[in-house]
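quick one: zinc ion bound model?
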Amino acid sequence: MNGNTETPENCVFCKIRRGEIPGEMLHSDDDCFVIRDINPASPTHLLIIPTRHFTYLSGLTDDILPVIGRMYMVAKQMAEREGVSESGYRLIVNQGEQSGQVVPHLHLHLIGGRQLGALG
Ligand code: 5GP
Ligand code: ZN
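yep, here:
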């Protein structure tokens, strides 16, 4: 984990939200925004990202819980928009080094559009 990216100033997702680097904004509200993953693992691969820069779930506090709830609601709506709601999809949160998390800003992966394999 690169400690240099753990601030909103250097964070790739915060930079996209601020318009400092390109990213197709599929949805944006006070709680979260949605972009397509730059390196998609499936035909549909979206990232649902809280507007506020949270790094890890270990820092989760009660005041953030409504944001987490909204992220799941937006994920459901995005799955409908992408046409994967009926076929099924997977929501994944990577947390920490052994999960493979590379961007230290909490985010929900929405992956679908093909038959997915087992988790491993
Ligand atoms: P993680 O492994 O941290 O859970 O997932 C981070 C995801 O962010 C990866 O799937 C990666 O492809 C995606 N990503 C990294 N940099 C960018 C970027 O600049 N733009 C977009 N749209 N996605 C990115
Ligand atoms: Zn950030």
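The radius of gyration is 14 Å.
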